[in-house]
Amino acid sequence: MVVGPSFAPPTISAQTWANKPSGIAWLRDLFPYRRYGARVLSYEYDIDTLTAPGGPAATGIYDEAVKLVNELQADRYIQDAERRPIVFICHGFGGLLVKRALSFSHSRRDARVEHLRSIFRSTVGILFMSTPHNGITKQSLALGEFNQYGGPSQFLLSLLEGSEALQEITDQFAPLMKTFFIYNFWEQIATSFGKSRAFIVDRTSAAPSWSDVDQCGINSTHSGMVKYTSESSPGFRIVLATLDRYIRAADSTIKKRWQKDAELLRKDRLAEFEDLIQSQHPAGSVRSLGVSGSDSATLLDSSAISETEADEVLDGEPSPSVNVHYLVHRRSEYFVGRLRQSDELRTKFGTPKRKRRRKPDIFVIYGLSGSGKTQFCLRFSEDNRHRYWGVFWVDCSSEANANASFALLGERAGKGQEIGAGQEWLSRSTDPWLLVLDNANDPEMDLNSYIPATGNGHVLITTRNPNAKIYSTIGYFQFRGMDPEEAILLLLNLAYPGSEPRENKDASWNYARLIASELGYLALALKQAAYTIRRQLLPLERYLRSLLGCRKALLSRPILQASADVNIIATYELPFTGIATKSSIEYRDAVDLLHVLAFMHFVSIPEGIFSRSSDSFKASKWSSIRPAAIVEPRSSQGVGDRILAAAKVLYDHSIISISDIQSTAHDNVWRTPSSTKLFSLHPAIHQWARERLSNSEQRQWLECTASILAHCVSHNLETSGRAFRQLLLPHIESCLSLLEIAHPKLPENLEQCSVIEKFGLVYAENGLWKRARSLQLKVVEFRTKHLGKRHVETIQAQRGLANTYWNLFEIAKCLEVQHQILITNWWTRPAWQDWLTWPPWKPVHIPYCIALDDLTRSLWLAGRRELSLRAGKRAVDGLTNRLGPDDPLALNAMFNLARTYLHIGELEKSYELLEVVLEKRTRFFGTEHPDTLMAMNEMGMNLCAQRVRLDDAERLVSAALRIRKRILGEEHAYTLWSVNDLSKVYCEAGRYQEAVEMLEEAVPIVRRTLGETHAGMLMTKSNLARAYMLCERWGDARPLLELLCEQVPPETPDWVHAQYGYAFILVHDGDLGEAEARCDAIVEKVGETGVLAMDSARVLATADLLYKIYRAQGGRDADLARLKERFPHLGREQAERARSIDLIPLKPVRRRTTRDLDDGPSN
How far from 1023 is each of 408, 1047, 1102, CA to CA, in Å? Predict the structure, then answer.
C-alpha cells in the first residue's frame, strides 16, 4: 500500500496519518499488515516548492507524478516486486497526484519505457480521502495562512474549482476509472480557522457523481479523517473493510490485467507495424499494377502527390501580392513570441492560390483569456497580409456582434448589411482570403452559420471553449502562457523600455521570473504588470507581494469566478485601486467612465456618445447615477473634453486603448465626415470592470449606460447621423441583453420604455426589423396600459411599430395599427377649433392627416388602391393647407398619392405630383437622400408606364439603383426593389434578355435575404415570369407562375396578376378550358372582394383574354353577349385604357398571342 501526505512539510509528513497526542499511526499500529503480508510505503514530496510563489505551477503536478512513478517502480524493481498489487491511499492533494501518476504510467506504451507501465498494471484500488477532484472553494483557500507570501501562489490557485489543470487531470484519468476499485470519502466536520470554520474540500468535489464508485462521509475534519486512534474511530471500520476487500481481490485481478494489457500492447504494435509496411509499399503500387518503363515512373510520380498538393497544382496560381481588403484593427505593439506556432500555422494553411473555390480550411486556437489568442491572429494577419486578397475580422463574442461584423463586411463588398451578404460574397470569391472569427466563446453559438460554405479561404477561430475544436479541419493550438524566457523579457522590456537586456543573474531578472511565473506567463497580465511597474505605481521588487495580497482579497469577492481569471483581474485591480483613491477631477471621471464602458460592447465605443447625449441626459430623471463629466459641463464640447481627459487616465494605466477613426467610405449625407475617438477594452478587462461592481451597483450603472445610449439618439433620426447610429448597434445590443437579464419584464417604467423605444428605432433604421418589432410591441403595450391609447407617446410608439410592420410586409397588422391611430386621432384633436371644421367628421388637424398619409402608403401596398386614393387626397389637402407645399410631411403625402395614381393608371396626375416632389426633395435634401431616391425611382416608373421618354426612365431608375447599391448595398430590400423596376423599363424598351439576366441574378439574393414567401420574392418571381414570356421562354415562365398562384394570398392584387399571367400561358399552350377557368376565377374574386376595381387595367385585360378564348372556341355567342354586357369595351382598341404599370410587361406578347387566337379556334 502506498500512502502520501497532504499539504505538510516533509519533516512531519508521517503525522498526516498519525494522531499527534497519542502518537498512534493507524497504518502501523492498527492495520494488520502482517496478516495480509502487506508493505506500507509512504511517499513524501516538498510541498513548499510547489506552493511557493514562482514555483512550478504549470508543471508541478506532472513533475511530481513522474517522480512518483519512477521512484515507486525503482523500489519495486530492486525488491523484485514489480507485479505486486498496489492499493493507493490518498489524502487531499495526494489524490490528484496519484490520478496524474496513473495516467502517466498508462501512457508508457513504447518497449523502451514499458517498465513504467507496471504501476498502472499493478494498481488494484484507490482510496481518495477528501481529494478535491473538482477543486477547493475560494472560501477555504482564502482562510489559509500564507506566511511571508501574503497571498496564494499560482499553484494554489490552480486547485480552485473550475481550474483547467484539474479538468486536464480528470480528463486523462476518466478512461482509466473502470480499471480500478475506487472509494471516495469526504469530511463531515468543518475545519476551524480562527473564528471561522469551513470545509477544506466539500462533498461535491470529494465525491463527484461517478458511476459504479463507492462513496461515504467520515464524521471528522479534513485532517482528522485519516488519523484513527482506535478501531472505533469514525471511518476506520469502513476503511479497514474496503482494504480487506481490495486485498482479497488483488491477486486474480492484477494477474488478469497484466496478461490482458500485454496482449493489447502486442496487437497495437502489430497494427502499427502493418501500417508502416503499408505506407512504404501501398497496395496500389507500380509493381502490383504490372507497369514498367517510363509509364511506371509517371504513375509513381503522380501517386506521390497528395490530394491537397493536387488541388494546388490543378486549381490555380500562387496568390497575388496585392492586398485589396484589410478589415483588421491594429495589433498591440507589445506582442512578441509564438513564432514557432506562426510558422506552423502558415505551413498548415499552405500557399493561397488564385481562382479556386472549395471548402475553406479551418484552424482553431483555444485557451485561457489573456493568453494572446487575439494578438497572435492580429500578428499573423499583419505578417501574411501580402498572401491574401482580403483579410477580414469578425467579432463573435455574441451572435448580434457577429452579425454586425458581417454586415460591415457585406457593406465593404457593396452588398449591403443584410444577413448573409458578407458570407455569400466570400463564398463566391475565387481570390484567396483570410477570415478571423474572434472571441467565439459561447458554446451555444453555431459557428457553422458564420463560416462560408465555399470559397478560396482560410478561417481562424479564437475561443476559450476547448470544444470548439470540432470546427477545425486542419488542426488547432491550445494557448496557455508564453515561453517563460519570452515572458520575462516581455515584462522587463515593457517595464523598462530602452534598457539593455538583462542577464539571468540580475536581481531584476529574478524578480521578473517570479512575477511572470505567478502570472502564468499570460501576455495580457504581463503587459499590465509591466505598465504598473513602469509608471512607478509599484516597484518591481514590491510588485509580487502586492499581487499576492490582492489575490487574497479577491478570493472573498464574487468577481473571481474561475481560477483562470485571477491573474488578469489582480493585475488590473492594483492600478485601478490607485486611480479610485485619487481625488482629482480626471481621476474621478475615469472611474465613472470605466463603469459606463463596462456595459457597452468592448470594441469601438465612440467618444461622441457622451457629448451627443449630454443635453437630454441632464434633463432625464431615470438614472440614479449621473456622471459628473456629463452633467457638469455647460456645453457638449466641455463634455467631450472631460471624457477625453478621463479616457487618457485609463489609457495611461493600460486599461483601455484609444484610436482615431476617419470615415472615408462615401462622401454623402449618410456619413459622418469628421473623425472621432474610439475606446476599446480587452474582453477580460471588460468583464472585470463590470463584475467588480456589486449587484446593486451593476444595476445602477447599467441603467445609466442605457440612458446615455438612448439620449444620443433623436426621434427624428436625421440622416446626417446615420453612420454614427450604426456604430451604436453593438453597444445597444450589449446593453439591452444585460437589461433584459436584470429586468425580465422589461419595460418596468416609462423611462425604460423611452430607452428601448430609441433602441428599436436604431434597429429599424439598420434593417433589423424583427428585433425592432419585439421592442416596439413591448413599448406599445406598456404605454397603452399606463398612459392610455390616446396619449401622444402611445401614438408615437404605435406609428413606429406600424412602420416596422410595413417593412416586414406584415401589411394586415400594419393596417390594423394605423387604423387604430386614425380613430384615436379622430377623437383626440389638439385644439377645440379642430372640431369646428366642416364637415366635422372629416378633421384636418396635422396628426390626423399624418395618419391618413401612413394609411395611403399601406393601402397602396395592400393593393387597396381606391381606399389609398381617397386617403391620399385628404392627406395632401390637409398637410399642404396646414404646413405649406414645401414641408417634408406634405411632400411625403404628395409622393404617396402620386404612387397610388401611378398604380391605378392616372399617369398624368402621378407625373405632376412626382415632378414637384422630386424637384423639391433634390433641392432640400440632395440627390442621395433616401426620400429623393424614392421619388427618382417612381418618376422613372411613371415615364415607363406612359411608354414615353424611356431613355429618361432608364436614367432615373438606374441612378436610383446605382446610388442605393453604393449607400445601402447590393442586397438591401430597396436596392432589389430598384432592380425589379429597372427590369420593367428594360422590358418596355424591348431589352428582354437583359431583364431576365438581372432578375435571375436577383432571385437567389432575395431568397437568402428575405425568404421564399416574402412579398419581395413574389414580386421578383412575377417580374421574371413576365420577362421569360417576353423572351418566349414559356417553359421557364409556367412553373414560376404556377408556384405564385399557390403562394400569393387571394385577397391581394398580386393574386390577380399571378392568375392572369398563368391564364395567358395556358392560352399559349392551347389549354383554353383551364385558361377560361382562371379568368372566371379572377372576375369572380374581384367582384366578391373588391380587391381591384372592375374597370382596372388588370381586370379589363382579363376580360379581353376571356373574350378571345370564347371567340377561339366558337359556339359561345351567348357567353360573348353576357361578357360584352358586363364589359362594354370589348372588341375596341384598348391602347389608352391598358396604360398601367402593372400591365405593360405583357403588352407585346398579348398582342401576338391574341392575334393567334383571332385566327380561329385552337387545335
Answer: 30, 15, 18
5 preceded by cis ω (within 30°)?
no
d(CA 70, CA 406): 55
Contact 353, 312 (CB under 8 A): yes
Give the residue extent of every domain in the chain: 2-251, 326-479, 484-578, 584-742, 1048-1163
Q: Are strands 181-187 and 123-129 parallel, antiparallel or unpaired?
A: parallel
Query: To 10 degrees, the CA torsion angle through 426, 431, 432, 438?
Result: -20
Beta 475-479 vs 361-367: how paired, if at all?
Answer: parallel
Span 578-619, pLDDT tens digits: 899 998 999 999 999 999 999 999 988 999 999 999 988 988
Same fold, 2-251 and 326-479: yes
| Interior/surface letters 865-899, b for 16+ CB within 10 angstroms, e for the rest | bebbbebbbbbbbbbbeebeeeeebbbbbbbbbbb
Percent residues over pLDDT 90 in the chain:
49
What would the grid cell of residue 186 be? 469526504
Residue whose cell numbers read 489568442:
373
Cα 482 to the center of its chain, rounded Å = 28
Cα angle: 273, vertex 279, 285; to 5 degrees: 130
Of 842 and 914, which is predicted with more confidence? 914
CA distance to 246, 633, 912, per residue, from 676 (Å): 73, 20, 44
How far apart, in Å, are the Cα atoms of 1159 and each of 826, 834, 1114, 1154, 1156? 59, 64, 12, 9, 5
Return the percent helix, strand and coil in the chain, to nearest 5: 60, 10, 30
Give the model's confidence band at 833: pLDDT under 50 very low, under 70 low, under 90 confident, else very high. Answer: confident
Residue range 667-688: mean pLDDT, rounded: 68
Q: Which residue shows C-alpha cell 500500500?
A: 1
H-helix or E-strand spanning residue 217: strand 214-218
- Which conformational region is residue 462 in: left (phi greater than 0), alpha (psi within -120 to 50 degrees), or beta? beta
Q: Rounded to an integer, what distance in angstroms lies between the CA atom of residue 65 and that of residue 68?
A: 5
pTM above 0.85, yes or no: no
Query: 10 Å Cβ neighbour count for 684?
Result: 23
Pair 964, 943: CB distance under 8 Å? no
Helices 1015-1030/973-988 angle, 10° precision: 20
Residues 6+ apart with CB under 8 A from 485: none
Residues 6+ apart with CB under 8 A from 497: 534
Please name the helix (run of DSSP H) or strand (run of DSSP E) that holds residue 183, with its range, or none. Answer: strand 181-187
CA 366 – CA 467 distance, rounded (Å):
9
Do the Cβ atoms of 577 and 561 come closer than 8 Å? no
CATH, domain range 326-479: 3.40.50.300
Closest CA to 880 of 869, 891, 871, 872: 891
Q: To the nearest 10°, the Cα dihedral for 516, 520, 526, 530?
A: -40
Please name every residue paired with 318 in a beta bridge, in sequence order, or none if there are none.
Answer: 353
Instruction: Report the CATH fold assignment for 1048-1163.
Output: 1.25.40
> Which secondary-structure segment (H or E) carries 677?
strand 676-680
Cα Rg of the chain (Å, integer) = 39
CA angle 563, 565, 568 (to 5 degrees): 135
CA dist 808 and 1013 (Å) reads: 12
**CA dist., res. 1114 & res. 1099, Å (int):** 23
Higher pLDDT residue, 4 or 1064? 1064
* CA–CA dist 293, 494 (Å, integer): 65
Q: Does the structural domain 2-251 have CATH classification 3.40.50? A: yes
Q: For residue 783, what are the CA distances in angstroms to 757, 773, 795, 822, 1070?
A: 11, 15, 9, 17, 60
> Beta 86-91 vs 2-4: how paired, if at all?
parallel
